[in-house]
Amino acid sequence: MIGQNKVRDKDKYAMIKFFKLIKQQVQSKHLVIALLSITSVVFTACKVSYKFNGASIDYNKVHTIQIADFPIRSAYVWGPMAPMFNNALKDVYANHTKLQQVKHGGDLKVEGEITNYQQRNKSVTSEGHSAQTELSITVNVRFTNTNNHKEDFERQFTATSSYETTKSLQSVQQQLVEEMIKDLTDQIFNATVANW
Known about the structure:
The chain has about 200 residues and is of the alpha/beta class. The protein has helices at about 1-45, 80-95, 170-195, and strands at about 65, 100, 110-125, 130-145, 155-165. A five-stranded mixed sheet has the order 2-1-3-4-5, with helices on one face. A hairpin with a 7-residue loop joins strand 4 and strand 5 (about 155-165). The longest helix has about 45 residues, at about 1-45. The N and C termini lie far apart (about 75 Å). About 15% of the residues are buried.
């Protein structure tokens, strides 16, 4: 009899614990539902210009963007670099905004030049030989927002990439320049329309 009461008490305790756990989960579900409801009301009641692609553009005020071709003003050049950069810069705005690209009179203007393209020794072996070479591109950007001149700026952006000196620059140049251009266009996009 006494042994059976102990088993029943343990069962009762386990059942009470189980029901408390279920009650907590139900209450937390109600809390989550309430928070989601409040959040949805806030977002539908407010005008939010943030987009998941990173752009924060008020399309009621800004409709067009003018992107000038960036000429190379660097002493050291690689011929395909300028067209690659100019196309990638235009593509990033075309793919991540609803702005219409125009030749003249854009609400936003992005212009500048490729000011530096260079390579330098990045690391040295114990014998004193170069182990890695770093390649870098620097662009000077002038940004104008004709609707809000407080956002205007002129700034330099730099991207770098390294390669083993056992490889020739010619064998890795295309890939490295593509990587650096992607980095540069992301930096410029974020500085101009993402307002980070």
